[in-house]
Amino acid sequence: MSNPGVRIGVDVGGTFTDFVLLDPASGLLHLHKEPSTPDEPSRAVAIGFSAITGRAAVDPGAVQLISHGTTIGLNSIIQRKGARTALIVSRGSKDILELGRCKMRDPLNFFDSKEVPLVPRSHVIETDFRLDANGNVSVEPTSAAIATIAAQVGDLGVQSLAIAITNAYLAPELESRFAAQLAEQLTGVSITAVSSIWPEIREYERAMVGLMNAYIAPLMQNYFASVEKGLATQGFRGKLHITTSNGGTVSVATARERPIDTILSGPAAGVVATARFAEVFSQRSAITVDMGGTSSDMSVITEADVEYSTRAQVGDFPLFTPVVSVSAIGAGGGSVLWVDDFGVLKVGPESAGAAPGPACYGRGGTRATVTDCYVVCGLLSTAHKLGGQVSLSYQLARDAVAVVAAQLKFAGPDGPERAAWAALKVATSKMATELQKGLAVRGIDQKGYALIPFGGAGPTQAAMLAVEARLDRVVIPESPGTFCALGAALSDLKRDFSRTIRQSISGTEAASRSLAAAIKALKSEGAGWLEQEGDLLIATEYRLVADMRYRGQSYEIPVDLAAIDSEQPSDQQLTQAFHKEHFRVYRFADEKSLVEITSVRLTAVGKLAHMNLATIKVKLPPSTERPSRRIFMNDRWHEAVVLDRSALRAGQTLPSPAVIEQQDTTTVIPGDWTGAVDSYGNLVLQRKERT
Predict the structure, then answer these.
(1) What pTM does this model have?
(2) Which three-class secondary structure state does DSSP give residue 20?
(3) Positive/negative CA dihedral, 384, 271, 70, 50
(4) Domain spanning 80-215 has what CATH number?
(5) Lowest-pLDDT choice from 40-44, 296-300, 650-654
(6) In the Cβ-directed half-sphere of 405, how many Cα atoms lie within 13 Å?
(7) Above 90 in pLDDT, residue 553?
(8) pLDDT of 465-483, one tens digit each?
(9) 17-26 mean pLDDT
C-alpha cells in the first residue's frame, strides 16, 4: 500500500489523553486533548477518537491506523499495582531477586536501603530443571515434577507467572516448552517464558525483564481489549498499533504477548517525532525536553539520529532491552512546592497528579504546584481552558502559593508572586543541572544544539531553562503539547531480536562464522514477525548491532554492524569496528587486547507510508483577540503582548516580552529573547546577545 490513509496518534497521560489526526487528503493535522479517565483509561481513548474524527469531519471507518502509547504498564510497576505474580527459577536461584547485582543504588548514601523485590520470596518457586553453559539440558523436569510445580503455583493464587531457567537464553525453545506444559495445568494464569522475551546472558537482568512482563501482562491485556472494544463501538475498523520503548510500534497482538516492550513508549514517541522534525526543518542537532504533569524527560538528537540504549531504569528495577535513551531531568507541571525544616524552598518530586491536580484546577487540590506558579505569574491565562477542556482559577492558585510565601516570609502584596517566581527558578535550576550532567556523560558540547521543548508545559518553561542550561536557541513546533501523540502516528513498526554468542575474536574466523549463523537466524525470525504484522507495510529494513568488549571486561559497548558484510563477516572487520567505536566512546583503543563478542541484536523495521511533515499544516482553532497583560518575571512586573498562535504567519517577527497561546500549550518569550515564525510555522526563539 503506497498511499497513507488517515492516521491517528494517541498518547495517554495523567491529565490529558492527546490525539493527533493526520489527513493526507486535506494536508491537515488536527489536534485534540481529552481529559484522562484514570479509573478507566480506555474510556478517554474512545471518547477522544469520536471527538477528533468529528472535528476533522472524517468517517471513523475511514481511519486506516491508530498508533497508541500509554504509561499504564510503567505506572503499575512504579506504583507496584501489577498482577499477583510468581517466579519459577532453577534450584539454587531462589534469592535471585534479593541478591540482584549486590550493589548499593547510591554508594554515597549509607542510609539507602535495598529495593523491595517485585514479588516476595514466598512466590519464588524452585525447579530442578536447568541447562548447562552450552545450552544442554542438565536436568529435565518429569511429568510428576511439573504437576507438583503447577500445584504450588495454584496454591499461591497468582494471576501471572514468569519462568527463568538457568542458561535458558542458549535454548529458549526448551523454556517455552516447559511453559506450555505448565499452561496445560494452570487455567487462567498468564505465563511468560523469560527467554522468549529477551534471550541474553545475565540471569538477574533477564529474569527482571521477564518478571516485569508477567507482572503487567494481565493488566495490559485487559486494557488492550477495552481499547479495541471502545474504538469498535465508535466505528473504528482499521489497524491498532501500540508504541514501544524502542521508538517503533507493534500490532496489538504482539503487544499482548510482550507488554514489556511498551513500557517506556510515551517518551520514546516524542523523541521519534523530534528526530523527524529535526530532519525536515534543518535543526539536525537538538536537545529535547518533554515536560508533562509529573516529570520532565531529556533526550539528545545528533544529526537527526535518535540515541538508543540497552539499559534503562524502571522504578527500582533495571530494564535490559533496547530503548530510546531518555533521562528524567526534573519537575513537571504538577510538581508540588514545599519548604523543608531549614526554610529552603523545594519543588517535587511529589506530584499532584491528575486528581486532585494543581490547586488552580479546582478539583480539590490545595497544595501549590508549578502550574499554579505559572497562573500566579500571569504566564497562563485563566480566560482560556487548559487544553481546551480544564478551567483554571487564579484565586485558588494564589491562595495555594500564598501558603508557601508565608512559610518563606515573603511579605507584601507581591509575596505570592515572588514565591511563585522563586519556585520556577528552583525548578529551572534543578532541570538545568540534570540536563548538563546528561550532556557531560555523553561528552556533548551544547554549542550548535537547539532546545526543542514539548509536552504541555515545555514551551512555557523553555526560555527559562535555556538560559540556565546555556543554550541560545529554542525551536517550538506547531503542536508541542501533543508531540508524543504525533510521534506515535509517525512511527514505523519495529521490534528487536537477540542472540547470545560469547566468543573471542581470535583470527580463526570461528567468531565470525557464529555471528553469521546468528544473523541468518535473526533475519529469518524478524522476517516472519514482519510478515504477520499486517498489510500496511511498504518496505522492510534490518539493522544489526553487536555487543563487544575487551576480554575480561564486565560490560560491553554496542557496535553498529552496518558496514559489515552480514553474510560473510571477518574477524578483522569486527575487531576494527570495535576499536573504532571504543575510541569514539572512551577516546582510546587497546588494539593489542583480545576482543570478545557477546551478543548480536537485530532490529526489524516495517516501513509505513511516509507522512511528509513539511507539507502537513496544523489545524488550530480560529484566532480570537488577546488583550495584553502583566506577567511577573525576574522579581518584577512586565507588560507582555499576548498573541494567538493561530494568527501568526511565516516570516513574522514577534515582540518581547510576549505570551503565545494555543490550545495545547503556552509559549513565553522573555524580554531578553527575540522571536520569529519560520517558513514552516515553527516558533524560533533566539537569546539576545549579552553585553
Answers:
(1) 0.87
(2) strand
(3) positive
(4) 3.40.50
(5) 296-300
(6) 21
(7) no
(8) 999 999 999 999 888 888 8
(9) 88
Residue 478 in contact with residue 681, Cβ under 8 Å?
yes
State residue 222 phi and psi, 5-degree precision: -65, -40
Confidence check: pLDDT of 225 > 70: yes
Count of beta carbons in the 10 Å neighbourhood of residue 363: 14
In 185-258, alpha helices (H): 194-197, 203-233, 252-257
Beta-carbon count within 10 A of 614 CB = 10
251: phi then psi, degrees, rounded to nearest 5: -65, 160
Mean pLDDT, range 544-548, rounded to an integer: 93
Q: 632-641 long-range contacts, Cβ below 8 Å, gap at least 24?
A: 632/376, 632/377, 632/378, 632/414, 632/417, 632/420, 632/421, 633/377, 633/421, 633/657, 633/670, 633/671, 634/421, 634/670, 635/418, 635/421, 638/671, 640/378
**Residue 342 in contact with residue 604, Cβ under 8 Å?**
no
Whether the per-residue pLDDT at 2 is higher than 70: the answer is no
What is the rounded CA–CA span in Å between residue 677 and residue 303?
Answer: 23
Q: How many CB atoms lie within 10 A of CB 422?
A: 19
The predicted structure's pLDDT at residue 387: 66
- Burial (CB < 10 A; 0-12, 13-18, 19+), residue 666, is buried
Per the listing, cell 514552516 goes with 680
Contact 564, 573 (CB under 8 A): yes
Domains 6-76+221-262 and 80-215 equal at CATH topology level = no
Q: Do residues 28 and 619 touch, judged by C-beta distance below 8 A?
A: yes
Q: Bridge-partner residues for 619, per DSSP?
A: 30
In tens, the pLDDT along 76-106 reads 888 888 999 999 999 999 999 988 877 776 6
C-alpha cell at 688: 539576545
* Average pLDDT of the segment spanning 262-283: 82
- Residue 24 and residue 612: Cα distance in Å, rounded? 9
Query: What is the architecture, at CATH level 2, of domain 493-608?
Result: 2-Layer Sandwich (3.30)
Q: What is the mean pLDDT of the chain?
A: 89
Q: Where are the domains of the chain?
A: 6-76+221-262, 80-215, 493-608
Portion of the chain with pLDDT greater than 90, in percent: 54
In 326-457, DSSP assigns E strands to 327-331, 335-339, 345-351, 450-454
The span from the CA of 660 to the CA of 620, in Å, is 13
Distance (Å) of CA 424 to CA 181, 280, 369, 575: 58, 33, 10, 50
Sign, CA torsion 371/376/380/382: positive
The distance of Cα 671 from the centroid of its chain, to the nearest Å, equals: 34
Q: Which CATH number fits domain 6-76+221-262: 2.130.10.10, 3.30.70.100, 3.30.420.40, 3.40.50.1010?
A: 3.30.420.40
Between the alpha carbon of residue 57 and those of residues 23, 292, 452, the distances in Å are 10, 29, 31
Rounded to whole angstroms, the Cα distance separating 563 from 69 reads 33
Nearest to 303 by CA among 337, 332, 278: 278
Sequence-separated (6 or more) residues with CB below 8 Å from residue 491: 67, 241, 243, 247, 248, 249, 269, 272
Distance CA 335, CA 587 (A): 40
Predicted confidence band of residue 625 (pLDDT cuts 50, 70, 90): low
Helix (H, G, I), strand (E, B) or coil at 86: strand
For residue 303 the three cell numbers come to 544529526
Residue 604: is its pLDDT beyond 50?
yes
**Peptide bond before 117: cis, by omega within 30 degrees of 0?**
no
For residue 629, how far is the Cα from the chain centroid? 36
- Grid coordinates in use for 473? 536557541
